[in-house]
Design brief:
- The protein is α/β, with parallel strands linked by helices and about 260 residues long.
- It is built from seven helices and eleven strands.
- The strands form two sheets. It has a six-stranded parallel β-sheet with strand order 2-1-3-4-5-11, with helices on both faces. A five-stranded mixed β-sheet has the order 7-8-6-9-10, covered by helices on one side.
Length: about 260
């Protein structure tokens, strides 16, 4: 596979390394001087991985579509305001994309554990939920895209919550999930979901040691896009995970 990765930061380089390690061709393109990539630089790519910045997502995908690319993995965060526009653009031209604020398989499964925990603890009034996320000092978005996605899952399933607020603001509103963000050091990503009661507390935590987990998920998504025809438009990473789990179960059953 010949993949082009838009974004030469730590995530883009990690994805390129993961592809190269298994023999695929991966070209990395950094930020274009003209503000928009030349479609000629993307011509012939089997897929494009968007791993740059939120404000570059639309222009990058437009250039890739102009170059004839129709398979995409969008690993960039904080571009939700442009999601509807990007979705229409990709779908209209028959493209297919997998998009998620976090492409780690562990985080995808962690989200399902959080769903189960909310189902158990949500109805019990003595347990208050909270979310703490910690990323490297240089990370720009706060809360992170992953934290927002987790918060959205908690709020959607919790019987007493109507929204979420970052930091101390949430403490003054009993109907808001408090989301606290830490920006310090070089932590690539840590997310903790807790349920606190007067005499006890339960905490679930996902820790990313480095970016290889995110890169591995991007590779899974690329393989999923190539494995068969997919409906045009943007797909969530959960669809990729569902197929991975089903395949793993089949292998496990066959080896018994």
């Amino acid at each position: 596979m010949d993949a082009v990765i838009l974004g030469d930061g730590p995530l883009g380089r990690a994805i390129a390394a993961a592809l190269a390690a298994r023999g695929d061709r991966a070209r990395i393109l950094g930020r274009p001087l003209a503000g928009r990539h030349d479609p000629a630089d993307l011509a012939g790519a089997a897929a494009v991985v968007e791993a740059s910045r939120a404000d570059a997502v639309v222009a990058n995908l437009e250039a890739a579509l102009d170059a004839g690319v129709r398979r995409f993995v969008i690993a960039t965060t904080a571009w939700e305001a442009d999601r509807a526009r990007v979705g229409r653009l990709i779908e209209t031209l028959g493209g297919v994309a997998v998009a998620a604020p976090n492409l780690s398989l562990g985080m995808a499964l962690f989200g399902r554990l959080v769903d189960a925990a909310v189902e158990l603890f949500g109805p019990v009034a003595t347990f208050d939920p909270y979310l703490v996320e910690w990323h490297r000092r240089a990370k720009a978005d706060r809360p992170s895209g992953t934290a927002r996605a987790l918060a959205g899952r908690i709020v959607a399933a919790h019987p007493r919550l109507t929204g979420f607020a970052e930091g101390p603001a949430g403490a003054s509103d009993p109907e808001a999930l408090e989301v606290v963000g830490i920006r310090a050091g070089a932590n690539p990503g840590s997310h903790l979901v807790g349920f606190d009661a007067p005499g006890e507390a339960i905490e679930l935590r996902h820790l990313a040691r480095d970016r290889t987990a995110y890169a591995g998920g991007a590779v899974f998504a690329l393989d999923w896009l190539r494995a068969g025809p997919r409906a045009p438009g943007i797909h969530g990473f959960d669809e990729v995970v569902d197929d991975l789990l089903a395949s793993s179960r089949e292998v496990a059953m066959a080896t018994r």
